[in-house]
Amino acid sequence: MNRLRPTEQNAIGYNILIAAIFILSLWVAKHPYLGIVHDARYYLLQTLHALEPTRWNEDLFFRYGSQDSFSIFSSVYKWPVGAIGIAAANLLAIVIGDGLWLASLGLLVCSILNRPTERLAAACGVIALNTGYGGLDTLHYAEPFITPRLFAEAAVMCGFAAASRGRYVLLSMLSLLAAAIHPLSALPGIGIITFDSLRRDRRTWS
Fold first, then answer.
1. Hey, is 1 helix, strand or coil?
2. pLDDT tens across 121-140, in order?
3. Which percentage of the chain shows pLDDT scores above 90?
4. Most confident range, picked from 7-11, 93-97, 114-118, 128-132
5. DSSP code string of 111-173
6. Element (H, E) at 185
7. In the structure, what pLDDT confidence band is assigned to residue 198 with cuts at 50, 70 and 90?
8. Cα Rg of the chain, angstroms
9. Which residues contact 153 (CB under 8 A, 6 or more apart)?
């Protein structure tokens, strides 16, 4: 087994550090902190309802039920909101969400690509390209504000990475987690993984 010399190890570590700083800088440039905007307002309202149900039950938004019943997000998010306040909890959540999203992206590109230059190019492309999708780019991946979609996307990317390594038990767990966080965001990822699994298993088509 060939071992790297200390100078080679230092060079690899230096290159990884430079790449990480570059990716982080690109992320910050593309995802400035916007505060509580867009859909983050609706999810914050649902979180406040989870904290004080009796106060908001008569609001028309909640009287006949809401989308919050399909997600665990508010049940988790209410704890930091109640403990440290709305503004601090929002900032904390977006930092954690961004960190998980970037880590999941890194895990995915490392799982499906072999060359470091390819991994770096893929990660930078995902971050730098237009993130909009749907009619009039209404929705975006890696949104710069706090919604459960950010966390569900991270779980789906980890699921892709697990699938590429044949770790299907972990894949199932991550898919369930993504669905519990945001079912609609999880659905395309689960569909792609399911189709790929069926494609690999020739018995399905025999």
1. coil
2. 999 999 999 888 877 777 88
3. 58
4. 93-97
5. HH--SHHHHHHHHHHHHHS--EESGGG-EESS-SS--HHHHHHHHHHHHHHHHHTT-HHHHHH
6. helix 183-200
7. confident
8. 20
9. 101, 104, 141, 142, 178, 185
CB distance 46 to 66 below 8 Å: yes
Report d(CA 168, CA 193) in Å as an integer. 10
Tokens of 174: 């991550």
CA atoms in the 13 A half-sphere facing the CB of 134: 8
| Residue ranges covered by each domain of the chain | 18-205
Tokens linked to 169: 């038990």
What is the Cα–Cα distance from 43 to 76, expressed in whole angstroms? 12
Burial class (CB in 10 A: 0-12, 13-18, 19+), 178: buried
- pLDDT tens digits for 23-36? 999 999 999 999 99
* Mean predicted lDDT score pLDDT of the chain: 87
- Are the CB atoms for 40 and 146 separated by under 8 Å? yes
Residue 165 half-sphere exposure, CB side, CA atoms within 13 Å? 15
Q: What count of other Cβ atoms lies within 10 Å of the Cβ of residue 154?
A: 26
Residue 64 scores a pLDDT above 90: no
- Looking at residue 11, what is its pLDDT? 64
